[in-house]
Design brief:
Elements (H helix, E strand, L loop, with lengths): L4 E6 L10 H9 L2 E5 H7 L7 E5 L4 H13 L3 E6 L9 H7 L9 E4 L4 H9 E2 L5 E5 L7 H13 L3 E5 L9 H13 L4 E6 L7 E6 L12 E5 L4 E4 L2 E4 L9
Parallel strand pairs: 1-4, 1-5, 2-3, 2-4, 6-13, 7-8
Antiparallel strand pairs: 8-11, 9-10, 9-11, 12-13
Helix pairs in contact: 6-7
The chain binds S-adenosyl-L-homocysteine.
The site of S-adenosyl-L-homocysteine (SAH) has 25 residues, from helix 5 and strand 11.
Length: about 250
């Protein structure tokens, strides 16, 4: 039997071709794989012969507690997150749960390609200069705090990547935020959205902020809002970094 070990593994955006070799190797060695069902489904055959523990969307604490219990019993346990495990994923929660333990388990974190990377590549090169990543979910962060951070990003002229942009029940925040960016950065601000980035069914949209189909944005989409230097070049989204590219 393995000595009990626990890994927080980011599986990338979904397509197995974007699963990092180290993540694949750790998954192959695992006795127990723990995660949200749709993410486990993305792994397909890779985990067929494993013990699998899955819970619903908001069962994160219980899910991580069962994972820790299994590891303490001697199993090699992998807790999967989509994208990167340390970006709105399970890595931090596992570390927090071990905070007051006399003999804390060592949580090993394996990085993955986060949605922002996969979406940026699909659109072109929008993250060539400074950018910010914001989650619009008000589940664990109070709405007022989310709005305060949005204002700071708008003011700093950072390219902005929005995670958890709009759910079925949270419909007011995204239009409000898009409006703030439009007022501050102008009608010709470039925006891109990518639904199912880096996995089957990837869909991109690219255009001016005033044309953004806000209502179509859902929870499997990321929204990238350009800054004053972001342009559409040959139908790709590009943030100019400042290189001199004039032809002689
Ligand atoms: N740990 C994940 C993020 C989890 S937060 C990561 O690093 O990517 C969940 C949000 O991430 C979703 O609501 C969506 O906005 C975004 N997301 C995750 N995977 C995505 C994908 N393949 N395509 C588009 N957006 C994605």
């Amino acid at each position: 039997m393995n000595q009990g070990r626990i890994f927080a593994v980011g599986i990338g955006p979904g397509g197995l071709d974007l699963l990092a070799p180290r993540a694949r190797e750790v998954l192959e060695r695992a006795d127990v794989v723990v995660g949200y069902r749709p993410y486990l489904d993305l792994l397909g055959d890779l985990i067929v012969d494993k013990e699998v523990i899955s819970t619903g969307m908001r069962g994160e604490v219980a899910r991580c507690q069962s994972a820790i219990a299994k590891a303490r019993q001697g199993s090699m346990v992998v807790v999967v997150s989509s994208g990167d495990a340390g970006i709105y994923g399970m890595a931090g929660l596992l570390l927090e749960l071990e905070e007051n333990e006399e003999e804390p388990l060592i949580v090993e974190v394996v990085p993955g390609i986060t949605a922002a990377n996969a979406a940026a590549a699909a659109l072109g090169a929008p993250l060539m200069n400074d950018f910010a990543v914001l989650s619009l979910s008000d589940w664990l962060t109070p709405l007022e705090e989310v709005k305060r951070r949005v204002k700071a990003v708008v003011a700093a002229d950072l390219v902005c990547v929005l995670y958890n942009p709009q759910s079925r029940s949270r419909r007011e925040l995204l239009p409000e935020i898009i409006n703030e960016f439009t007022l501050a950065r102008g009608n010709s601000t470039v925006v891109g959205t990518v639904r199912n980035a880096g996995r089957e069914g990837e869909e991109c949209w690219l255009g001016n902020i005033t044309e953004l189909p806000v209502a179509a944005v859902d929870m499997v989409t990321v929204v990238l809002i350009g800054n004053s230097r972001t342009a559409i070049i040959n139908n790709r989204m590009v943030t100019r970094r400042g290189y001199r590219v004039d032809k002689a």
